[in-house]
Amino acid sequence: MRCSSYGLVIPGSDSRFFSTGTSVVPPDPSRRLCPTRVSFVSFKIKANFSDACVKDLTGMTFYQLLGIPESGTLPEIKHAYKQLARKYHPDVSPPDRIEEYTRRFIRVQEAYETLSDPRRRALYDRDMSKGLQLAFSARRRYQNDMEMEERSEWKNRWQSQLSELKRRSMYKDARGNMSWGAQMRKQKEDLSEEL
Amino acid sequence: MHIAGSGTFALLLHSLSFSTVGEGMAEPAYTVASDSETTGEEKSSPAFPEIAIGIDIGTSQCSIAIWNGSQIELLKNTRNQKMMRSYVTFKDEVPSGGVSNQLSHEHDMLSGAAIFNMKRLIGRVDTDPVVHASKSLPFLVQTLDIGVRPFIAALVNNVWRSTTPEEVLAIFLVELRAMAETQLKRPIRNVVLTIPVSFSRFQLTRIERACAMAGLHVLRLMPEPTAVALLYAQQQQQTVHENMGSGSEKIALIFNMGAGYCDVALSATAGGVSQIKGLAGSAIGGEDLLQNMMRHLLPDIESRFANHGINEIKSMGLLRVATQDAIHKLSTQTSVQIDVDLGNGSKICKVVNSEEFEEVNQKIFEKCEKLIIQCLHDAKVEIEDITDVILVGGCSFIPKIRNLVKGICKKEALYDGMIPLEAAVRGAALEGAVASGISDPFGNLDLLTIQATPLGIGIRADGNNFVPIIPRNTTMPARKDLVFTTVRDNQTEALIIVYEGEGQKVEENHLLGYFKITGIPPAPKGVPEINVCMDIDASNVLRVLAGVILPGSPHPAIPVMEVRLPTVDDGHGWCAEALHKTYGSTLDLETVQKKI
Predict the structure, then answer these.
(1) ipTM here
(2) Which residue from B minimizes the CA distance to A17?
(3) Residue B229 exposed, middle or buried by CB count within 10 Å (0-12, 13-18, 19+)
(4) Do B560 and A105 touch (CB under 8 A)?
(5) Domain coordinates in residue numbering, chain A
């Protein structure tokens, strides 16, 4: 059996694929992932429709996300991160905005993890100066990760699924999906409403 | 009040019926026997919401604390003890635990009727080395070595009465709850519990189950050193308030070693925010030091006690108490005389010095060092950057432990602002208050913990390898994904087997659950992209999502699968074995090479 008979791109890590001497096309990220991008577009639109905040944030640089200048020092980055954690960590979220806060916090976390690591920050800065303004697509290059574009679409895809799931579970288990802090606040609210 | 009570009961039933599926027999539900003391209506009014209590269930000792409105208060039992022994005695019809029970002599506990060290047994299968080490305890721990729950029994009137770790823990928690309700004059429902860093998510479900059996609702399960980190954050916050200082970031290394577990955490603290940068833990503790010492004193201990007869249990108990006592003494003196009559004509008379103790336990101490180094490495923290080194837990009194921690961290002195045995429960009480939405006019509850995953979570792929998708020490909440592909041509199904742990091979990790992806469109191996995404949400719930994409296709090939984990029950050792037997490598996956 020769792989080439299928004439397909093989993304595998297995070296066997490449030692068969066939005309296997080397994995080219942009080409290979293209269909993936297409496949999730409809979901992306759906997800963005239901959640405007994603759209606002995806266009921001990590510096903008943390609210610091590009010349910001490490203590400034750490300080900004902790300030934003106090603001956006799901533990401090209002009960009805857990998902939004979770997403925001994860973005802040990504920005912090990149900018607080001198090596990753240097690479990020380099990419930014090359004009890759999109913070999330620039990150991929040094994260050894899959393409961010696809990544965020994948996220949107399952986020929309997740929010659907949460809406459903709200009925049967009104508190199960909230952070514990929010659960308590909800409980308090419910209690005061009853009286 | 009665309405609230029945609500709790309903929840209890719900959780019981929910989790008994696949467990065979339902275990009895324990409720607080006396309902008369629960008359705290005025206190649970909206103006004064219920504050969750903090519980530290230690392997050997247990304590309970609450934020009393201005500070943390440890609750005492009727014998004025803040620290209660974690055990349950099955002497009479009604089992009784270390909270209420008065022991005439410690040896009573070692007559075979008392079950303890439950924290080392809960959620472990009978192939686990920790379970095997527990076989020398003075009650029955039987293993069949096939990956099922170990058989545990107490000797009651010459009958081995079976029980489970969850049941023992639940009985104990009921006593704790009753004690707290009596003192606080209100019903207790919400709790924050501390747990060891090395606990898997499966073990957490067992703890939650024990709590549900005791009618308690778990607000949060907190790794012990992160509770200590929270207490530290509060103390630093207070210092800043007093000095009007700048409140710059402080790095603390927390080393917590009790009877059953050793945990390390690194936290970065500023402005009341405690960011957990690294966690490391292992099931090593005072119990291992004790067993090694017992073996040192009585080399043929295994064969001697293999039969678990009444006399053997008694002599094993005597030796245990004497050795424990000796180890305690070695914390303050360099040598100790051990003099114990084991009955049946054998006596141990020996002087043991601290060098011997350290030599016998060399491996344990080395493991402690490794954990600290691993934690420093994971957190990317340099030793010079550590502000404070905090040593807590029962083993923190052992000179060797103190020296090794100080040595690695290059510190002359340890942080002295905490009571070593109370730090974890105090942190849990703080978290309980913060989680309950309590605010403090002086900002003492203006706190936040940013938690990290103590263990990696991933799936089986690339042969028998564990491929982490959410690595250890990832900040929570988190979501990560990886792309996998098929290993055979026209492979239409794939098994996603989810594990948690640190080992490279799957069998070194905890099985959390599994599901099958079916309907993968026929394609050559390596072509379908199977995207496995893991999500830990704000309430620490783990979900795994798996989707299949064929290059060139505009849509996912099949509906995305979403599974909430863990899904395994107590037979999980069987499951991994059975999966392997049934499917072999036919439904394998491998990772798609990461791109540059």
Answers:
(1) 0.82
(2) B526
(3) buried
(4) no
(5) 29-183
